[in-house]
Amino acid sequence: MPIPNPIPELSKSEFPDDFMWGCSTSSFQIEGAASEAGRVPSIWDHFAEQAGRIRDGSDARVACDHYHRWQEDLDIAQKMGLNAYRFSISWPRVISDATGTINEEGLQFYSDLVDGMLARGLQPWATLYHWDLPQYLQEQGGWENRATVYAYLNFADVVSRRLGDRIKNWITHNEPWCTAMHGNWDGMHAPGNRDFKIALQVCHHVLLSHGLAVPLLRQNVSDAKVGIALSLHPLRPATTASKDVEATRRHDGLRNRWFLDPLHGRGYPQDIWDLTGAAAPQVQRGDLEAIAAPLDFLGVNYYFPEVIQDAPEKPPLATNVVHDPDCERTAFGWEVAPQGMASLLRRIQRDYQPVPMYLTENGCTYDDVVEADGSIHDAKRRDYFIRHLAVLREVIREGIDVRGYFAWSLIDNFEWAEGYLRRFGLVYIDFQTQQRTLKMSGHWYRDFLRG
């Protein structure tokens, strides 16, 4: 099917020869096998058991059955022409209890998985924490409890000692904003708290665990490259009124600067710290220096910009995210804005002069329709990827150091609080039969990568 204007023409040859081309996944969303081979419950297993938490009432006990079908999924990734594969390692599958008991069968699964990647020419990119905290730790306070920082370091130590001879690229955490804020402020995600003070303390402990893990991973892994993946958003005020402009600055302070500033040695932004009042996190001596451990790369997860409006009735930030009615949107309601990605990357480069960046997630959900012949003509998703990659091409030509792109996601999966209502995959999953079908977008990505 021809690509209509104004969809740009695009060629892989327009990107650097050593560019990383991958897809991203996460353990809880795809693996299933929730109670097999020594895996213990995570906070998301517990969350899904609570009525009303997951929109379609589902859970991830089977998900994509990747635990049993990983070879098929890696075959798909290889045939697609990827040279990198981003995955996460399930803490509850590797560490069985609060005393640190190692589940050898869980570790062996990831060892086999990594060997499978390497055998298919896929460079493994491992994320240590993608939100699936063991429930046994949540029952001791979870990330609000500083002891979880040291439990995480033990987990990172065990995994990197076992797999570090084959994995060189490590992401300590995926989207600390979601761990802290969605999990503990608005309650959308596990564990479902609604307490701003808890959320800020969780955020600090997650960032601290990242900072302390950086030298540990480098100690255990020869030539390790260590980074973190942040969910970042370009922002714009709803109007030119000074109140909305100021609200946008406040919102940026917690959405973006609260993470970028301490990671780059600036501590928490003072203007936002002043707004937190009694909710400010407890920070011990040396914490900020640890968080600022030098990175080897910065992972940027980009999906959409946010439009900000002043909202005095909503402390502490007194901001509100509003919709621009004129914008194209995905089925999730997220704005389709490739230029937003460009403005975000330019802003990071300008304000932080970071180490090399990677687009560690970028993707979209639409309501896929399976045709009578079994095909899925997801032209909107295909065009989404083309338009975003065309913008990325221009940003790289400007001299901004972006070295890789990971589409979210390889396969449809359990989309957290949305259950199975949202599909982000380049590959369609029939969750009744577990049959995998490459969508039009997946065919395009394959053809693009194979030239």
UniProtKB/TrEMBL annotation:
PANTHER family: GLYCOSYL HYDROLASE, LP05116P. NCBIfam families: BGL. It holds the Pfam family Glyco_hydro_1. The keyword Hydrolase applies. InterPro entries: GH (IPR017853), GH_1_N_CS (IPR033132), Glyco_hydro_1 (IPR001360), Glyco_hydro_1_beta-glucosidase (IPR017736). Its EC number is 3.2.1.21. It is an enzyme of class 3 (hydrolase). It comes from Undibacterium nitidum. Substrate binds at Q29, H130, N174, Y303, W408, E415, W416. It comes from the Bacteria. Belongs to the glycosyl hydrolase 1 family. PROSITE patterns: GLYCOSYL_HYDROL_F1_2 (PS00653). One of its GO terms (cellular component) is cytosol. This is Beta-glucosidase. Keywords: Carbohydrate metabolism, Cellulose degradation, Glycosidase, Hydrolase, Polysaccharide degradation. GO terms for biological process: cellulose catabolic process. The active site is at E175 (proton donor), E361 (nucleophile). GO terms for molecular function: beta-glucosidase activity. The keyword Cytoplasm does not apply.
